[in-house]
């Protein structure tokens, strides 16, 4: 179907025959060739391709230092460790996130303190952050949900007032901007995910961006056992075998095989975003008139990375709940997902850390209603129209 066609009018559209996956990666020949080149080169772990990927990433984001790691989880964890955060410290974050954001605080030995989110953008509410600050608070981890930037002016001002570090969880937010400044340049540390479903992928991977040379160096050392020289430098011509272990480190380095993918993914990030935006516009044209659904809004004063397309169902207007809605989509060969179950509702946090249903009412309200529709560059207009037709068909059949 050409771009100009009206994606509405599901009536008569045949049901989709093939299952539509939720978020497959968009890997091109350049990525494949680069991985093969690495495999043939004799150097497959951390090496010059990681260095090149870091330099490309820093140039794209506009940050002085980018450190490539094997996950964003590792980046968030090492970021907290590099800031010296540990037992006795509190770190404020959102319950509307993936478990990794909270788990790293616990792994660092600190205490997560959750602050509720805002209905309009699913992002942490600066007023709730302000209310959660205590004399033990050391840092805030805002999460740019779905790629839509948090209110970084308010969070930055609050952090400055209380002497808190800001570590941005930008797992969803490559290419996003807040008031003309790219995410990755605003805070002490910003961590991007390069996991398989993310807008730019290395299969698994993460990137830490910072303007602080000391933090970047510390994260590099901790990512490789606490060694004061990375393997590439040790084994490169003119390098020396000798090294010291200067602290208790971990094993979180990125390999050249991953960087080989990332270099070519990153080169396409703007093109990828354009395609995601076109899909968002098509969803809006096809679903925007339905009062049973609330579609995600755009940032008023920035740039959305459009990692996810989270819609909210209105339970007062529908005869099916969210889980049934997703089941009905699956019956029509459309895979949808949920981002997220509010963290305080999971049994581990509830049982071990004492959270209760009702503790974060906005996060819970969103968590009960949210359905994430497929949003990825390989979706064709026809695929998007299949999703629109399925959603419209389910809503028409199940409106109260
Ligand atoms: C909000 C958020 N934070 C952190 C992570 C962890 O990223 P990674 O899988 O690269 O460790 C994810 C991954 O899905 C995420 O969505």
* Poorly predicted runs: 1-9
List the total number of helices: 14
Taken as a percent bin, the fraction of beta residues is 5-15%
CATH hierarchy, class of the largest domain: Alpha Beta
Cα distance, first to last residue?
A: 32 Å
Order of secondary-structure elements: HHEHEHEHEHEEEEEHHHHEEEHHHEH
Across the major sheet, the strand order is 1-9-8-5-4-2-3
The secondary-structure class comes to alpha/beta
Please outline the major beta sheet: 7 strands, mixed
**What is the average of the pLDDT values?**
95
Ligand roster: pyridoxal-5'-phosphate
- Overall geometric form: globular
From the 3D coordinates, which CATH architecture of the largest domain would you assign?
3-Layer(aba) Sandwich
Assigned CATH superfamily of the largest domain: Type I PLP-dependent aspartate aminotransferase-like (Major domain)
